[in-house]
Input
Amino acid sequence: MPGALLSDKIPKELEGFWSGNSCKFSLEKYALYIGKGGYLYEGEDNVEFNFVNVSNKNKWSHFNSKSEFNSYHYFYKLDGDKLIERYPPEEWDGKDLSFLSNQESQDTIYFRCKDKDPLIESKYGEALSLLSSSVVTNCGSNSNTDRRKCINEVFRFLDVNRDSELHSAEINRGLRTFSLITILMSQNSGKNEDKDVTFGVYLATVPFMPLLTQTLMANIDYNGSKSLSLEEISQDRTDLFSAILLAREGVVNDLKSVPRLLQNLAPLLQGLSGLN
Ligand SMILES: [Ca+2]
Ligand SMILES: [Ca+2]
Output
């Protein structure tokens, strides 16, 4: 693409919490959190969460995300303390950038907010903290990803109190995070789901997390410390999977969305256990 400067990082100055002038979601009804490697948007009816590829096009940052069913394109540019968001026209060919110079009327304007909105934070806090960590940028899907760096970042993200051991509460939080993200992303399947339904599915999985954690712990805590070290997690892939399957059979069988969640968790845990 001529003149396109490819990069894989979201520009630092776009990171943060954006909304309408008052920065109150209850008034504005829309809010956007841009983090490292992805974003979360909540509008009146929908919530959208995506990991994105970013490239620079004519001084706009092009956020691009492709899923099995959908592709997302957003263009962002700063205007002082405001953020301009522009979409390409319907049926965009992916090349013609003329809309960047003549489509002002359809822009969405965001104001920079000092703090995250408490309502958004209380619902999606875990997803936001993942986006502000370096997990996404260190665990990209390209084959050049440094596996050990990724695993260390995931462990760092999970290890909230930084004692190099994962305790139950930390594992619960980790599972909640991945559950939330999996559910948010699985709704990007084309059929527009109501955001309250999506959030409801997530809430329904939360009570199962401690049981899942217990099962994981019972199978992997080899030295009986009631916590998991990086070494224990990476020791025995088979045990880890049998633990997950056991948890799935025994605990979450009747919840429609949870097996899918666990299927998606498996590659992640496989990553964790594939240290050799
Ligand atoms: Ca810890
Ligand atoms: Ca242990």
In short: The chain has eleven helices and twelve strands. Residues 221, 223, 225, 227-229, 232 surround calcium ion (ligand 2) (CB under 6 Å). The first strand starts at residue 5 and ends at 6.
